[in-house]
Amino acid sequence: MSRTVFCQNLQKEAEGLGFQLYPGEVGKRIFDNISKEAWGNWQKKQTMLINENKMNMMNPDDRAFLEAAMVAYLFEGKEPKIEGYTPEQK
């Protein structure tokens, strides 16, 4: 059975994540307030950010940067800065 959350990113009721995909308080906040659709959108942007910035996920600074970008995107609607990428206009 899928669960429904009010997605803070999409500002609508939507299917929630099946389980907490990210650790800690941030992960709980995402699980409680972010839909599967919004998480999928973030995953695509995260991949672009990691590739473009040649990030190493073993590097704590890179992980901290990504987490900040993720929270800003999911909860504040701030698009990450990705060279050569323009988000589609809503």
TrEMBL record:
<comment type="function">
    <text>Could be a mediator in iron transactions between iron acquisition and iron-requiring processes, such as synthesis and/or repair of Fe-S clusters in biosynthetic enzymes. Necessary to maintain high levels of aconitase under oxidative stress.</text>
</comment>
<dbReference type="GO" id="GO:0005829">
    <property type="term" value="C:cytosol"/>
</dbReference>
<keyword id="KW-0408">Iron</keyword>
<dbReference type="InterPro" id="IPR007457">
    <property type="entry name" value="Fe_traffick_prot_YggX"/>
</dbReference>
<dbReference type="Pfam" id="PF04362">
    <property type="entry name" value="Iron_traffic"/>
</dbReference>
<dbReference type="GO" id="GO:0034599">
    <property type="term" value="P:cellular response to oxidative stress"/>
</dbReference>
<comment type="similarity">
    <text>Belongs to the Fe(2+)-trafficking protein family.</text>
</comment>
<protein>
    <recommendedName>
        <fullName>Probable Fe(2+)-trafficking protein</fullName>
    </recommendedName>
</protein>
<dbReference type="InterPro" id="IPR036766">
    <property type="entry name" value="Fe_traffick_prot_YggX_sf"/>
</dbReference>
<dbReference type="GO" id="GO:0005506">
    <property type="term" value="F:iron ion binding"/>
</dbReference>
